[in-house]
Design brief:
CATH topology: Rossmann fold
Radius of gyration: 16 Å
Number of domains: 1
Mean pLDDT: 89
Largest sheet: 7 strands, mixed
Number of strands: 7
């Protein structure tokens, strides 16, 4: 659960410790799982980057890439800037902006990552973000996605519901998060023509990391999971 418009400044210092206390290293595993798929990219957009761990990893795995990080928390950006200051000098830039209204502009990006950020928004807001971001990508650009999901049935679904209630209550209280439930982000990506081609699930299916691609009418997606 990352980055609302207000409130995450106060959590920036403790954010990594909080996520490790709740889920061990699984949120970080989910964020990093498919970043190596962007190793040949030249211009990467990170929406809701947070404290800079993903940007720092991308500096290493995508040595030719210009990386643009967008986050609404100035405190998160400050931490991310420090984390990428040496290795990422000249290749990582930051924009303090609300991703609901952020307009990428300029040259198209050839990859995007949304890592535990779309869960902060309503379904309508996610739909708008997906459409606007898709328009800023070059053909064939992958979308790396990591977020909380609700398993289909059984004990895993009940467990996920309990965790999600707890997480949304915490972030409403501590970060002024307005939404109260998980938006259907995967469904909204698919509605815009994105298809999941790789995926892993963690924490009994509560956490998912995926790679999405958009295919033209004569192309068939090759799905895979590990």
């Amino acid at each position: 659960m990352s980055r609302a418009r207000r409130g995450f400044d106060g959590l920036a210092r403790w954010y990594r410790a909080l996520e490790f206390a709740a889920f061990g290293g699984d949120l970080e595993r989910a964020r990093f799982a498919f970043l190596d798929r962007l190793s040949d990219r030249r211009r990467i957009l990170l929406l809701g980057e947070g404290d800079g761990r993903c940007a720092a990893r991308l500096v290493s795995v995508a040595p030719l890439a210009e990386i643009v990080c967008v986050d609404s928390s100035s405190a998160m950006i400050e931490r991310a800037s420090r984390r990428t200051a040496s290795a990422g000098a000249g290749r990582v830039t930051f924009a303090c902006a609300d991703i609901r209204s952020f307009s990428p502009g300029g040259r198209p990006f050839d990859a995007v990552a949304t890592l535990f950020v779309l869960d902060c928004f309503s379904a309508d807001e996610v739909a708008s973000i997906v459409a606007r971001t898709g328009a800023a990508l070059s053909p064939g650009a992958p979308w790396v996605f990591a977020d909380f999901v609700l398993p289909a049935r059984g004990v895993a679904r009940a467990r996920a519901r309990a965790w999600l209630r707890l997480l949304y209550a915490f972030f409403r209280n501590r970060a002024a998060l307005r939404v109260r439930s998980l938006p259907p982000s995967e469904e909204l990506l698919e509605r815009e023509g994105w298809r999941r081609v790789e995926s892993i699930d963690l924490q009994w299916g509560l956490i998912r990391s995926s790679v999405y691609r958009r295919f033209t009418g004569d192309e068939a997606p090759v799905t895979g999971a590990r």
